[in-house]
């Protein structure tokens, strides 16, 4: 009911009477009044005028299960949301849920993380109350070899959403970083549990620096937030819902074809590595090459510095781009 009330108030530019809400939702006046009080406590500024009703004046950057659901425009991903004030890592919570419940499409979001994870055991700095920490649980019936392509789709979904909401063009650093002004604004961590020929579940963790105003010293030169770059506060719930929507649109196509063919151009157009000299660390070996772009499997195509005809692919590994943090 809370989700419905938030939606009705947000979509109305005038007062909504208590009676109208009761009729629409089939509940009592007291029930409506209780929800209004809860919403005010959560940070919604709601004006109540007798004989007119309720009007939403402002909702600060609230993220809650109801707020996120009220903005969700998808068919199945993100239709169930678990929201927490604090977790160790949304990926860890999501993996546990995935093992225990029928949870395909479930979205885990937390206001803060005490042990945010990056790739290869690295940490993800997770300030409370201003950024996005979300993990999507998926149980796709696809070849496990193709699951890493989901990271590419997630990165593309974030980059499209940022372009829509803050009107800033971002770059993608293969495979999983979103770059704004040469600094990292988002990271994606995909983890999965598989059998040889079967995926139990995939968890796609997305961390976006949204309204954060500063970073610890060790990250200051390499990390940024949407707020730092635009001086614009973003409603995190809107961005979360947009990322899930953009992701779902591509994911449903991907499930059918299991290649990135339709998304390659868009990804490669925003790829910061493209046509640049990159350093690749792969299976402990380090070498320099020129990046071309991704292929339909999401692998990074590179060619030797001196031999443009000698093209190879990088499956997974660290790729650093000179001049980018
Ligand atoms: P990554 O290994 O590519 O990046 C981690 C590296 O990025 C760190 O070693 C550090 O140098 C830098 N870094 C750490 N925190 C930040 C930050 N907030 N902004 C910019 N740079 C940073 C990227 O891993 C994948 C990160 C996924 C994070 C999400 S949050 C929700 C979900 N839950 C969870 O535990 N992880 C994912």
Provide the CATH superfamily of the largest domain: Bira Bifunctional Protein, Domain 2
Please report the distance between the alpha carbons of the first and last residues: 46 Å
Q: For this structure, what is the CATH class of the largest domain?
A: Alpha Beta
How large is the count of helical segments?
10
Name the assembly state. Answer: single chain
How would you characterize this protein structure?
With 325 residues, the chain is α+β, with helices and mostly antiparallel strands. It folds into 3 domains: 58 residues, Orthogonal Bundle (Arc Repressor Mutant, subunit A); 205 residues, 2-Layer Sandwich (BirA Bifunctional Protein, domain 2); 45 residues, SH3 type barrels, CATH 2.30.30.100. Helices cover 32% and strands 26% of the residues. The protein is built from 10 helices and 14 strands. It has a 7-stranded mixed β-sheet, sandwiched between helices. Strands 13-12-11-10-14 form a 5-stranded antiparallel β-sheet. The protein has a two-stranded antiparallel ribbon with strand order 1-2. Strand 11 and strand 12 form a beta hairpin. The mean pLDDT is 92. The protein binds ligand BTX. The site of ligand BTX has 28 residues, from helix 5, strand 5, strand 8 and strand 9.
